């Protein structure tokens, strides 16, 4: 039974390691990394197989134990791999998914689909809160749908990011648009994050339901029928898209355009919609058409995946910086956060 899989903050994960004021040294094949954790619990995704040696707290030495296996499955390195193969398998990237904040038609309980409506004030606040929760997670590229509610969510969230890079929507809709939106400073480019807008990530097209009130529609056609249109995998609303049809464009786009970025080590955020993201999560989590029926995404809640060794590892929803300080950071994410701390202090 798949429920809203992302609402348990990572802190509820079965295992994490308490690393208070710890020095954390572990050796990789090509480098050694020294991380200092200041008073927050870290889920490290470590396993003895990853060369984890020991972490030294100020008060003693704690060995990683089997009971401390993390949510992230250790990546096994098959023997006799080429360096490239090994690098590919060892490259890690963060993937953040976020459904847009509340829209004006969400507030009116209208079917929205591909109608392009903006966020409510509450939706703006949700986007800003989401930004706080991902403010320490690296973002190198942003993908949004072509709809303003997703684009507003991405831009508002990034106002909270500690790295302070500027998200810039790329305009490639024509040669002139590409030419007229060029940036002629390499330094400025380095301080920017490209934002790619793609209609393939749009919300599913709700056909003749778009603009109708959800409750009135249920009263008219029956609750079961409307639930079937809204949540089934292969039953479309009248002259609209089923989730399966939405997946055919959204997941194809993810595989063709976004997955290669992750494979190259780029950290990606996708700001999209309830159903286009349900179809992508179905692919990432290998959900069945039955399981996906129960998958619900709230507005404005960021979800973190780690892409490593060609696999997607679900990490839940990042806790806010003010929350109990439980971060399910991988080593790489913890190092990124530490560098931000050093850069900003
Ligand atoms: O398009 C819409 O109406 C909403 O974004 C999602 O609607 P749903 O929750 O009915 O799929």
TrEMBL record:
Q: Which UniProt keywords apply?
A: Glycolysis, Isomerase
Does this UniProt record's set of keywords contain Cytoplasm? no
Q: Name one Pfam family in it.
A: His_Phos_1
| GO MF terms, alphabetically ordered | phosphoglycerate mutase activity
Give the matching PROSITE patterns: PG_MUTASE
- Listed binding positions for substrate are 99-106, 112-113, 149, 203-206, 214, 230-231, 274-275
An example GO biological process term is: glycolytic process
EC numbers for this chain: 5.4.2.11
Show the active-site residues. 100 (tele-phosphohistidine intermediate), 203 (proton donor/acceptor)
Which residues are annotated as site, described as Transition state stabilizer?
Answer: 273
* Top EC class, one word: isomerase
Matching NCBIfam families: PRK01112.1
> Into which family does the record put it?
Belongs to the phosphoglycerate mutase family. BPG-dependent PGAM subfamily.
Query: What is the protein name for this chain?
Result: phosphoglycerate mutase (2,3-diphosphoglycerate-dependent)
Q: Which organism is it from?
A: Salix udensis
Provide the organism lineage as a comma list: Eukaryota, Viridiplantae, Streptophyta, Embryophyta, Tracheophyta
């Amino acid at each position: 039974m798949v429920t809203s899989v992302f609402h348990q903050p990572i802190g509820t994960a079965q295992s994490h390691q308490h690393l208070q004021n710890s020095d954390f040294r572990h050796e990789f094949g090509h480098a050694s990394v020294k991380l200092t954790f200041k008073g927050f619990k870290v889920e490290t995704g470590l396993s003895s197989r990853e060369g984890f040696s020991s972490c030294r707290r100020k008060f003693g030495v704690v060995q990683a134990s089997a009971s401390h296996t993390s949510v992230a499955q250790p990546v096994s390195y098959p023997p006799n791999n080429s360096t490239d193969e090994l690098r590919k398998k060892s490259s890690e990237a963060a993937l953040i998914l976020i459904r847009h904040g509340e829209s004006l038609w969400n507030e009116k309980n209208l079917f929205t689909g591909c109608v392009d409506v903006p966020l409510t004030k509450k939706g703006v606040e949700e986007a800003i809160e989401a930004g706080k929760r991902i403010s320490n997670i690296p973002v190198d590229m942003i993908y949004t749908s072509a709809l303003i509610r997703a684009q507003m969510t991405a831009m508002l969230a990034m106002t909270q990011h500690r790295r302070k890079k500027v998200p810039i929507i790329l305009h490639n809709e024509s040669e002139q648009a590409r030419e007229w939106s060029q940036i002629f400073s390499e330094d400025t480019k380095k301080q920017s994050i490209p934002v790619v807008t793609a209609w393939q990530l749009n919300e599913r097209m709700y056909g003749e339901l778009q603009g109708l009130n959800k409750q009135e529609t249920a009263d008219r056609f029956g609750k079961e029928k409307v639930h079937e249109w809204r949540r089934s995998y292969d039953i479309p609303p009248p002259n609209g898209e089923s989730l399966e049809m939405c997946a055919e464009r959204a997941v194809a786009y993810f595989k063709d355009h976004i997955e290669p970025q992750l494979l190259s080590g780029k950290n990606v955020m996708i700001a999209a919609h309830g159903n286009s993201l349900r179809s992508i999560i179905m692919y990432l989590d290998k959900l069945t058409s039955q399981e996906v029926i129960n998958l619900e995404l709230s507005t404005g809640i960021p979800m973190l995946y780690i892409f490593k060794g060609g696999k997607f590892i679900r990490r839940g929803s990042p806790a806010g910086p003010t929350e109990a300080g439980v971060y399910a950071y991988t080593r790489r994410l913890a190092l990124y956060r530490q560098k931000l701390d050093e850069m900003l202090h």
